[in-house]
Amino acid sequence: IGDGSVSYGMDDGDDIYMRSWTGTIIGPHNTVHEGRIYQLKLFCDKDYPEKPPSVRFHTRVNMTCVNPETGVVEPKKFGMLTNWQREFTMEDILTQLRKEMASPHNRKLVQPPEGTYF
Which residues sit opposite 10 in a β-bridge? Predict the structure, then answer.
C-alpha cells in the first residue's frame, strides 16, 4: 500500500464480518527497526468502526506503546487508538505505528532477536 512499507489483508476470506486481519510493517530506515519485517494481528469486534480494533504485534518488538509481555498495542500509549475516529483505516494504524518506530523514544531501543514472536 502506498510506498510498500505497510500492508494488510483479511485472515479468512470467508469471514463475512471482516473481523480478523494480519498487518505487516517494514521497519523504517535509519532506526534499529530498519530491514525488519513486523507482523501484527488486528481484530475488529462488533463495535468497529465506532471503536478501534485491538492491535497486537506477533513479531517481538520493543516500543513504548507495546506491552512487552503480550505484544498488545496499549491504547492509552498510542494516540491514534486513544483518539479513535471512525474514518481511520487499518492502513492508518499501521502507518502510524511505523512512524512511532521512527520517533526519538523508539528509534534506538534495543530490539529482541529477529525471528522471535510473542
Answer: 21
Domain total in the chain:
1
Residue 25 lies in a domain: yes
- Residue 28 grid cell: 523504517
Whole-prediction pTM:
0.95
pLDDT of 99 reads: 98
Helix (H) or strand (E) holding 25: strand 20-26
pLDDT of residue 4: 86
Domain that holds residue 24: 6-101
The CATH number covering residue 67 comes to 3.10.110.10
Task: For residue range 9-31, list pLDDT tens digits in order.
Answer: 999 989 988 999 999 999 999 99
Tell me which DSSP letter residue 52 carries.
P
If 0-12 CB within 10 Å is exposed, 13-18 middle and 19+ buried, where does residue 107 land? middle
Q: Is 112 within the bounds of a domain? A: no
